[in-house]
Design a protein that fits this description.
Distance between the termini: 133 Å
Radius of gyration: 68 Å
Structural class: mainly alpha
Number of strands: 0
Oligomer: single chain
Shape: extended
Order of helices and strands: HHHHHHHHHHH
């Protein structure tokens, strides 16, 4: 195992050294290579000696512009106007009298070829043999006879089993009472009725205190039994103290006198028997 690894490392080192030596050597083409540079175009004498617009050049340019302006102002159009009109009229006459480039016998030959083609199509009897239709009718009749006498590939008891299965399923469906208990349905209906009654009789959740005219703002319409103001409570307290000071035993229950039990004089004879 160790020898194999050493051999593998040696081969790798040899390949690396060989690759470095191969890329280090320059070929003759690489040694003699010189970069090709495109030479710049030579400048003309006018471009070399150009020193901007001089006075003489401006004067010449202005003179040339004035000459072109005079030439344009004196222009009166094409002088040979009548010759152009005559040439157009001649071309128009030639076009009007032209009879085309079709030969005299070309139309007749074309019509004859069309008639011959139509006659050939009308007399065509097709590529089907003479006994094709008879054979096709016989084949259809044989297939119809075979289909009418076929009893199918279904077993004899298939229809009976299917009818029995359908009958059992219908019976099971008609006698199905569901998977919900009656008590659940009754509780649900009762809950619905209670909710409906609660909604129908709902008067809101805000208490509106009503009082008669002239009553204290803290008074309750039922008779002012609840005293919410300090003045009314103090008045009520004094009235109660006065009541109980005059009649201290106003809430004391009446005392009952103790009475001796009564006995029948002949009761002893009954028990002594």
């Amino acid at each position: 195992m160790i020898r194999f690894r050493l051999l593998k490392i040696t081969i790798t080192l040899v390949m690396i050294i060989f690759t470095k030596l191969l890329y280090a050597q320059d070929t003759p083409d690489q040694k003699n290579y010189t970069r090709k540079v495109k030479p710049k175009p030579e400048q003309s004498v006018k471009t070399k000696n150009y020193s901007g617009n001089r006075k003489d050049d401006l004067k010449e340019r202005n003179d040339k512009r004035k000459a072109n302006t005079r030439k344009t102002a004196a222009y009166s159009g094409n002088g040979d106007r009548e010759g152009q009109i005559n040439k157009r009229n001649k071309v128009s006459q030639q076009s009007a009298s032209s009879e085309g480039n079709v030969k005299s016998g070309t139309l007749e030959s074309r019509d004859a070829a069309r008639k011959g083609k139509q006659k050939e199509i009308a007399n065509n009897k097709g590529t089907v043999g003479g006994n094709y239709l008879a054979n096709r009718a016989k084949l259809r009749e044989a297939n119809n006879k075979k289909a009418s006498g076929s009893r199918g590939d279904i077993g004899g008891n298939y229809l009976a089993n299917r009818a029995k299965f359908r009958k059992d399923q219908n019976k099971r469906s008609s006698g199905y009472s569901g998977d919900i208990s009656v008590r659940t349905l009754q509780a649900r209906n009762k809950n619905i009725r209670n909710k409906t009654h609660e909604m129908a009789t709902y008067e809101g959740d805000i208490i509106v205190k009503g009082r008669k005219k002239g009553q204290h703002p803290s008074a309750v319409y039922r008779g002012g039994q609840v005293k919410n103001s300090y003045a009314a409570k103090e008045k009520y307290r004094k009235r109660m103290l006065k009541k109980y000071s005059k009649h201290s035993d106003v809430e004391r229950p009446e005392e009952k006198k103790e009475t001796k039990p009564r006995y029948d004089s002949k009761e002893a004879d009954i028990w002594n028997k």
